[in-house]
């Protein structure tokens, strides 16, 4: 199982609440998969106290400078070179195979790379996480998670964040967000969402938009790929003002993404990740059970839908 023991702050932005105002490109930063692999290889090499950096590099057929650049994620490493280095370091075959696979995945282009950097902005880490994850736990306090948003709801968020964005570019951002949902639709990703109830009653989106959005949540709740719980309005819990997502990847790697306006905190320290996991258990306990959450979603959707049918004020 792949794991690392350090936490990392990254300019990662999931865009559920807003969009990076400058649309800054992060293309100069090594891809997340490469950084994960580099940190793991460095950790394994440091654990092998019988080999110096020079010895490990020479035995694997590298120069010391190349190994240093690999460990710093400055250059990619091939699957064959990863296998050679793992052999030198005495890495168990199961873990070695996982690392070789990760090395090969790190060189593959992601589906999102068809979008320009001006659209991707700071979201590339999140997109890689979602591409590799098998489960995601998402807690939100003021919006619906991006993977569950309807197009009209997502468009409202994007337009509010970028009021001067040309329609064509805004549509590209919307397409990117909608394409993120495909792994749920294909059964590759399981999502468990816990949502604070005020996010489901936000009037600023418009009653029609909110009716469609909450109806969508009610339809998805309890399906094979999606679980939804609602924290009732007024309930005090251990993650007030702290939305976050907890990812488990297909190789067992776990990390947390905490969203904010201009970037985010990306955490993979095992102790810190466990703290967020413990907080998740407390959130789930404070939220309504799944069946009651589904009933609450249906009731809130009907409230929004009823208000769309109410006549507006008559002109004087």
UniProtKB/TrEMBL annotation:
Q: Which domain of life is it from?
A: Bacteria
| Renumbered residue ranges of the record's region Disordered | 1-32
Q: Which residues are in the HTH cro/C1-type domain?
A: 41-95
GO molecular function, a single term = DNA binding
| InterPro entries recorded | Cro/C1-type_HTH, DUF5753, Lambda_DNA-bd_dom_sf
| One of the Pfam families matching this protein, by short name | HTH_31
Name of the protein in question? HTH cro/C1-type domain-containing protein
Q: Which organism is it from?
A: Amycolatopsis antarctica
Lineage of source species: Bacteria, Bacillati, Actinomycetota, Actinomycetes, Pseudonocardiales
